[in-house]
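Our consortium's second objective concerns turning raw sequence data into structural hypotheses that experimental partners can test. To show how far this objective has progressed, the report includes one record in full. It was chosen at random from the queue rather than selected for favorable results. The single chain below, 371 residues long, was entered without modification.
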Amino acid sequence: MTKETIQSFCNNIKSKFFNIGKILASRNTTIIFLFLGCVGCASLNNTTNSRLELIKKRGELICGVSGKIPGFSFLKTNGTYEGLDIDICRAMAAGILGSSEKVKYRPLTATERFTALKTGEVDLLSRNTTFNLSRDGIGGNGVTFAPVVFHDGQGLMVSKVSNIKDLTELDGENVCVGSGTTTEQNLNDAFLEKGINYTPIKYQDLNQVVAGYIKGRCIAMTSDRSQLAAVKSSFKNSDDHIILENVLSKEPLAPASLGGDQKLSDAMRWVIYALITAEEYGIRQSNIDEKLIEARNNPKLVTLRRILGVDGQLGSKVGLNNSFVVDIIKSTGNYGEIYERHLGPESKVRIPRGLNNIYKKGGLLISPPMK
């Protein structure tokens, strides 16, 4: 039976439901049959109408970003974006479309991001978004997360002249925080558990939070520790501020897409795993051509041949070109290269890799086998 025949059958079933009143009296079994048929039709539509196909047809990926966080997603004065989250967008475009240049960035506030996904304004988010149950669950935001690209934790920043060394010393003080975020909830939970009274000064985005802190409307500001490090690095007198050692929460940050779209989520998942796998196997932007020649000329290098698309046709199984790993690494380098470029010792925002290292080096990043 062809797809057209199945679709015709589905449309016929749907039309029959308009006459359901005539059936109710005598044909209960028919109702059940028709109901099951419509469930099947819904499944058919879900598998064929993927956002992945729309992206390919459009020839451009629309990526929701922040644009205001140095090291992660920052709009430069020349109008271009840079940062770890931006390179994740570029890797997605390279994996899906074969070119990291075929991407448009859409700056979004924390409160706008999930609405932008649901309305189709963006294809995916690469915007320092915490992966948690409420966002992942169908009863919550109902989004699907790709693998974590940065393991973070929430912290607090204060000025040195405040002489504050621990969050318990913030009792009765004002704290600047972004509204509509898990940051706001984590702050409340942590202070409530320790019996600390405080007044939250809420803002819509990070820039407003920073401005409130600088103007003295609060004695401390809170955000992910990575964001605090990025903000601190942008201050003219950065040494005048300290990030407290207290960690209020765990914040696994990951790209996200609208839930229920397995084709797109599969593609996103394996783009991230490709970045991690490449680092595990020492495949870099500088040696990718050499590695590809090596794989083609040596049939014994079975794992490398699969990873680079010489054998196995792995890409086609997740809706990508079989050369998707090669396309990604040529565009952005592996995960380690992306990290070093934006957050490494020579970058403006220096954050030790720690948990964000590959598992072989004591970190949490690991990819399932590509086979």
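The partners drew two points from this record. The longest helix spans residues 28-48. The longest strand covers residues 150-159. Both points have been shared with the crystallography group to help prioritize constructs.
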